[in-house]
Design goal:
One of its GO terms (molecular function) is 3'-5' exonuclease activity. The protein is an alpha/beta fold. It has 8 helices and 5 strands.
Length: 210
């Protein structure tokens, strides 16, 4: 999907607010697939959980769901042991994962190839892709891996385009509109990734009829 052009910096009627608004629009558009991209029959939905506010290197769980022609065909789900210095568990209350849970889990460097092979060039979606792509990029930067896929799209932003009028676009709300029978265990990466996959399947159907 073509990005909107930035305002002419020399235009007398352009304000700082105009520049910031356009920048936000460009960022949102970056995560929204074109009609041909959303129609691709195969995609992967992903979700990361992090241990703390320090950033993506504190990732403690990743889950992926692979979809082909509207059907889930494969899953990947693993805990991740954050490296020393990034392993303070601040968000256990949210996702239920503690330091003890990941004591014997692999580090990112040990699963990077598996993750990359699972994606295998497919289009990737996350609900709030700005967060998950940032986690993924920071893991790659810290460990020297090159696994971050492109393109990387956002079911949150895409739902805003295709399902206008929802009270909000948080995962439970969009899921209720797209797959109301799915029992979400929110903030568990495996459940959130599957919810994202189901949302994208419904967005694909809506895009075909819009």
């Amino acid at each position: 999907m073509a990005l909107q052009k930035w305002p002419n910096r020399g235009a007398s009627n352009a304000t700082p607010a105009d520049f910031m608004s356009t920048r936000r629009t460009q960022r949102r558009s970056f995560f929204v697939p074109s009609p041909s991209q959303i129609a691709e029959p195969s995609f992967v939905a992903v979700d990361f959980e992090t241990a703390n506010r320090m950033g993506g290197v504190s990732a403690c769980q990743v889950a992926m769901v692979k979809v082909l022609d509207g059907q889930i065909v494969d899953r990947l789900n693993t805990l991740i042991r954050p490296p020393k210095g990034w392993d303070s568990f601040e968000f256990t209350y949210l996702h239920g994962i503690s330091a003890a849970d990941v004591a014997d889990a692999p580090g990112w460097i040990n699963i990077a190839d598996t993750v990359s092979h699972f994606v295998d060039g497919a289009t990737v979606y996350a609900h709030n892709a700005a967060f998950d792509s940032r986690v993924w990029r920071q893991l790659d930067e810290h460990f020297g891996t090159t696994t971050l896929p492109a393109p990387f799209f956002c079911s949150y932003r895409t739902a805003q385009r295709l399902i206008p009028g929802l009270p909000n676009y948080k995962l439970p709300t969009v899921l209720h509109a797209c797959a109301p029978n799915y029992q979400l265990n929110h903030h568990r990466a495996d459940s959130d990734a599957e919810a994202c996959a189901l949302i994208v399947c419904e967005l694909q159907r809506r895009a075909q009829t819009s």
